[in-house]
Please model this.
Amino acid sequence: MRLPIRILAAAALLAGLLIALILAEDRARAQGEEAVLAMEAVDPRNLLTGHYVAIDLVHRLPAGEPCPAGLPQPPGRGWLALSKAADGRHILSGGGAMRAEAQAAGDIAVRGSAHCFRLGDGAEAQTAVRLEIGVDRFHADQAEAERIEALLRRRLGAEPVEAAAVVSVGRDGRARLKGIVLDGRRLDLNWW
Model:
């Protein structure tokens, strides 16, 4: 076989494998159980990766509420339990080293780790939980990224902006980002 034909055959094979991978991830995202998680967001830009919103999954606990039990600590990974709250979002309700432990503590079991920390000082301090489930960026085109940046700047001021990440948790326990919710508007990832 001549070299140009072999190069074209290899390129076609690699393109086919890439398309198959994208379709498999899209199917896994669509078939997973959806969870909406509170997030803190910033809008960094990177010339090599484009415009994106960095996702920091942080749930602020009500005053006096202790951290959920059995949380796998970073850098290790275990299982986290997510339970649906009254507002429709999901919150961390527990965890463990094994999937069965997490399933006993909540509605959805997802692979990851979490840790509690304090926000602020003194009597005003609040406890929060940061989730590490492998979801960390939402890429957007330049116009959408600029709109998101304007919303997030508002969040730093007196006007609060609702921010949440929408994830799909597959049968394998892996979280896949489906989209984000900013100020009541849902922005979904779209491959096509």
Notes: The first helix runs from residue 3 to 31. The mean pLDDT is 82. The chain has two domains: 1-31, 34-188. The first strand starts at residue 33 and ends at 38.
